[in-house]
Amino acid sequence: MQFALHAAQKQIAQDRHRFRVINAGRRFGKSTLVAWEMFAIAISAPDARVPYYAPTRDDARDIMWGPLKKVCEPLMIDANESRLEIRVRNNFGGESLIVLYGWEAVQERGKGVGVKNNHIFFDEVSKYREFFQGWEEVLLPTLIDLKGGATFISTPNGMNHFHDLYNYEHDPEMNAAAEWKSFHFTSYDNPFLDPGEIEKKKLSTTEDRFAQEYLADFRKMEGLVYKEFDRKVHVVGEGPDMVVETLGGVDFGFTHPAAVPTIRKDYDGVYWITDEWFHTGKTEDEVVDYVASQKFNKVFPDPENASAIEALRRKGVNVREVRKGKGSVVSGINMVHELLKQGRLKVLAHCRHTIEAFEVYHYAEISKGRDYSNELPDHECSDILDAIRYVMMTDAAGSAGDVPKVHYGSQRKPGMSRPGRGRSVV
User: Fold this and answer.
1) Residues 9/40, Cβ–Cβ less than 8 Å
2) At the topology level of CATH, where does 231-411 sit?
3) Where in the chain is the domain with CATH 3.30.420.280?
4) Distance separating alpha carbons of residues 341 and 24, to the nearest angstrom
5) Which site among 44, 66, 171, 325 is 20 to 30 Å from 298 CA-CA?
6) How many CB atoms lie under 10 A from the CB of residue 402?
């Protein structure tokens, strides 16, 4: 049984790195390639298990179920459409399993814990929410026993986690074992597409959107809330030397993540996000217990959760009032805007959820020249940013123009650097 791959597909198929990241333009032919690779892995190992993930279960069905059945048909034992599972005969006289999932199964239910996988395929991975949490805590451990691999395929969607994955190949720390390999292909690399049709898309869409969708070029997402956020400016490797107080924001959640950033304010009025607690499936009591354990000087919780706020007070937490309503959301966003512009908001490099949220948080309705000044953003990926906003809209607004200053000549220890000067990380 043979199938003719085009040159770019063949380059990927012949690669033997454990983790492959494929950044490709629309209609490159990735779904066809993935179907054949899943089949090849399934028949080449005894009792193999090969899962495929798409953003939703419906996406998995629409994108992969039909092509996969056609590829597997010669050796297919059973195709269970309700479970999106296909069993095939393998080369060792046994059966192997290929199963399709939606990412929400991982994000909401931790689906996948406790199994052993030979290889995992992630399709349109740039659209997954809370990717690193699901990958590192749930799915990566399923590859350990069999020393399995993973393939991450997508078209860019701003500068988010897929951008980070793509750069792992050149990260000395992440790729110390030389297991990561990245590929970049445009829609033009599919010889079966008419270039003239791609050129029509170029005429009918914005330059940034065409570059992202068809050239697979990483661009800042259109309609971003915090356009000022820049990793070179706002992401740092070290925290402040001298701290006035430590603040906590709290956004409660169970299905959506509960988010608690740790924010340290220095003597220059710079706010440093030094840690993040970001988890799904946490009860109100668990969130309250974590916040109480951190001994924050002040805590700024979601004002909609009265019972949790009362529980925090019973734990002795210094809870500060946060305003409600659309106007307060807009003013809070404006305050964060100003802090970013002034360089008074920094994020430590290990706070990956926070960094990604700044880079993908966007308005729901996107159009050229649109005035977003009085609009509310899309709620997706807002959890950690809401918690940060609760702090900034209250503490930063209340202390604007009245930031305490330290007299460096008398209050620094010998050899201590001036506060507020962390090392930037690109």
Assistant:
1) no
2) Nucleotidyltransferase; domain 5 (3.30.420)
3) 231-411
4) 33
5) 325
6) 7
Pairing of strands 243-250, 258-266: antiparallel
Any idea which fold 7-213 has? Rossmann fold (3.40.50)
Chain mean position to CA 141? 19
Q: How far apart are CA 403 and CA 399, in angstroms?
A: 6
pTM (two decimals):
0.71
Distances (CA, A) of 369 to 229, 287, 299, 331: 20, 41, 38, 21
CA dihedral angle for residue 144, residue 149, residue 150, residue 151, rounded to 10 degrees: 180
pLDDT in the model for residue 255: 77
CA-closest candidate to residue 7, choices 28, 34, 35: 28
In sequence order, what are the residues at sequence separation of 6 or more whose Cβ sits closer than 8 angstroms to the Cβ of residue 337? 226, 228
Residue 175 tokens read as: 């790729």
CA dist 323 and 210 (Å) reads: 40
CATH 3.40.50.300 segments of the chain: 7-213
Average pLDDT, integer, range 157-176: 91
- pLDDT, averaged across the chain: 86
- CA nearest 266: which of 287, 288, 243, 284? 243
- Structure tokens given for 382: 């807002």
Tokens, residue 47: 């009792």
